[in-house]
Design a protein that fits this description.
mainly beta; 8-stranded antiparallel sheet
Amino acid sequence: MIDGDSSPLLRKQSPYPHWQYLHPESGDRLRIVPERGGLVTDWCCNGHELLYLDQERFADPEKSIRGGIPVLFPICGNLPGDLLPLPSGEFILKQHGFARDQPWELQLLEDHSGVKLSFVDSEETRAAYPFSFLLEMVVRPIRNALEIDVNVHNRSQSAMPFSFGLHPYFKVTDLNKVRLEGLPNSCLNHLQMAEAETAIQLAALTEGVDFLTRPAGPVTLVDEASGRSLQLQHENPMDLTVVWTDPPRQMLCLEPWTGPREALISGDRKLEIEAGGQQRLRCSFSINLEKTVRAASC
């Protein structure tokens, strides 16, 4: 990591210990806490702080984080009994995997256009998931958008099954005045693990929802109270979308996943990398600021 007065990547202590990245041209800001799961805790674009973070909960390392952009690997969701069956035996693997709980490495990109986060297997991870791997995640602010480019490397001697997802928490002004565009008519209600009508789920955002969809294109979150919209643009195979709300928190999670819950058991969109191979995953979040007054600088 680089830490110097002239570097775009600096260590900061307020409002919590983190690394701050400032884009050299736009001034857009990222805050990253690599030791807490490679977590991006803040994205400020054109002066608009877009991510939700429960700082009080974040300050307690014994509690799961509510906010930022947690990384889900090597599974998304949970498994029955938290057991992953493999030819070599059964392994205990908790909900959403372990990447969000482990320390990552952080470095500035050579062209200073963003940062790269890296995570490798350890004795602890191999006890839950018996594979050798390297995750590399490049996070790059561009004009009115955030690009995330992931490479999953299999360093094992056998094929490696996995799922990957991101769990971004976006601030909203009022859940009663939120609209989602681009979702299909049907979805999977995670609370009941049953097919459901998307419209019914969307009508219950203020009550708390958790559902998975298979959209044909981008999905847009419209915050009608602020006049701001944010669009998730997928790239196959990370083109499923999970929507989650947790009232009274004024946030909505719009999550790109590669596969549904239990994909490593059901085979539904399970990804597998041959020994020595890699898989690239990409998505971006773009913000429409045309209807909003430009906020103060980050």
